[in-house]
Amino acid sequence: MCIAGDMGRVYEIGPVFRAENSNTHRHLTEYTGLDLEMEIDNHYHEVMNTLDQMFLHIFRALYQDFRDEVVYFYPTRGASAVTETPLDRDSQTAAPS
């Protein structure tokens, strides 16, 4: 609805509840969701680039603000901040892993 109201991007962060009868530790019935709606000018890769930059920003900020905790919980991987993602910007597709 906001996109129809001429807003270019709309982010929504809020609780999500899944009404499932799953009483196991493997099912997540309540979590915080992050939704993005945006208008696409030319190609869906615009959305991929936006999400890529958003996650980079989130992970860098978490590392900057909670460096000690990251290193504590991830001692082998937490020694450095996230600097890149698998998105290949030259071909605008996900790079093979």
What does this protein structure show overall?
The chain is α+β, with helices and mostly antiparallel strands. It has two domains: 1-39, no CATH class; 40-92. It has helices spanning 45-65, 67-73; strands at residues 9-17, 30-38, 87-88, 93-94. A two-stranded antiparallel ribbon has the order 1-2. The longest helix has 21 residues, at 45-65. 0% of the residues are buried. The model has no long low-confidence stretch (mean pLDDT 79).
**Beta-strand percentage range:** 15-25%
Integer tally of domains: 2
Q: Tell me the Rg in angstroms.
A: 17 Å
Shape: flat
Which parts are unreliable, with pLDDT below 50 for 5 consecutive residues or more? none
Number of H- or I-type helical stretches: 2
Order of helices and strands: EEHHEE
Structural class per helix/strand content?
Answer: alpha+beta
Order of the strands making up the biggest sheet = 1-2
What is the terminal separation in angstroms? 37 Å
The residue fraction in helices comes out at 25-40%
Main β sheet profile:
2 strands, antiparallel
